[in-house]
Amino acid sequence: MIFGGFAPVVTLEAPQVSRPGDFIWYELLTTDVDAAEAFYAKVLPWTFASFGQADMDYRIVHAPEHEVGGLMAVTPEMVANGARPVWLSYLAVDDVDEAVAAVEAKGGTVQMAAMDVPMVGRMAMVADPQGAPLYVMKPASGGKSMAFANDRPRVGHAAWNELRTLDQAAAWTFYGDLFGWRHDGDMDMGPMGQYQFIRHGGVIGAMMKADAAMGPPSWMTYFRVPDIDAAKAAVEAGGGQVVQAPDEIPGGDFSMTCIDPQGAAFGLVGPRKS
Q: In a structure prediction context, what are the per-residue pLDDT tens digits for the chain, which is 274 residues long?
């Protein structure tokens, strides 16, 4: 949707490390990793490299400037438990086990128990009280993740994080208590209700009321492309579906929502060149 734009705020005191509540990584769970890599390589300026684990085909997504995420296959066990192709977001926390306990105490659920990944960090997959899945993670190394470009527009990086939820008030309580997010204004979308902006340092995304056509509650990630019309053509040529055609947003860019050939929803944002 991105009805209110997403221009990041640059300050002279930009943090040099990821803070609790920051978006730090994005991960595609898919039924066909090879096909997904071929599709996204034509839609976004991404390259891919193996993470190097002998027992897992995990591929790192490289944008022109930084790493932004990973691709991995949905396992048979995941499918048996109802998993489907999906983009998932990682949020930084100071302590994964404390975060998991807090999620459960506030009505969320644990989808994957906390575990350590050597040289990567400790993580767990959880779902908020309305069912939107996400990861919480304590990275093994310090430094600032640039997967979400909150300092300036970066092609290939995440540009906006949008929660589609059944209960916005409850979502604000949950995420606000856990991550310190603040509600920073609304945009009226008529019958669709209020598009409510999330501030965490700068404005990092928004919450909106989900409806049946959107599917179950989820996080939608918008990635930046250099040309929105070229990206639309690439999505369609690659067997994907454009759900919402490019709409102009404040600031002059255009955004659209799509579904990849395996069924994972994602968003794109960028300028119109022609």
A: 544 444 443 333 455 788 999 999 999 999 999 999 999 999 999 999 988 776 778 999 999 999 999 999 987 777 777 778 999 999 999 999 999 999 999 999 999 999 999 889 999 999 999 999 999 999 988 789 999 998 899 999 999 999 999 999 999 999 999 999 999 999 998 888 999 999 999 999 999 998 877 789 999 999 999 999 999 999 999 999 999 999 999 889 999 999 999 999 999 999 998 7
- Please report, for residues 28, 34, 38, 59, 60, the alpha-carbon distance to residue 71 in angstroms, rounded to integers and kept in the order given: 5, 10, 12, 5, 7
Sheet-wide strand order for 121-127: 47-50, 59-62, 67-73, 23-30, 86-92, 133-139, 121-127, 109-117
Within 10 A of 148 (CB to CB), how many other CB atoms are there?
25
Q: Measured in Å, how far apart are the chain's first and last C-alpha atoms?
A: 22
Q: Is the pTM of this model over 0.90?
A: yes
What proportions of the chain, in percent to the nearest 5, are helix, strand and coil? 20, 40, 40
Nearest 5°: the CA angle 228, 164, 114 is 105
Element (H, E) at 139: strand 133-139
* Closest alpha carbon to 8 in 198, 196, 135: 198
Strands 254-259, 241-248: pairing kind = antiparallel
Nearest to 203 by CA among 148, 135, 150: 150
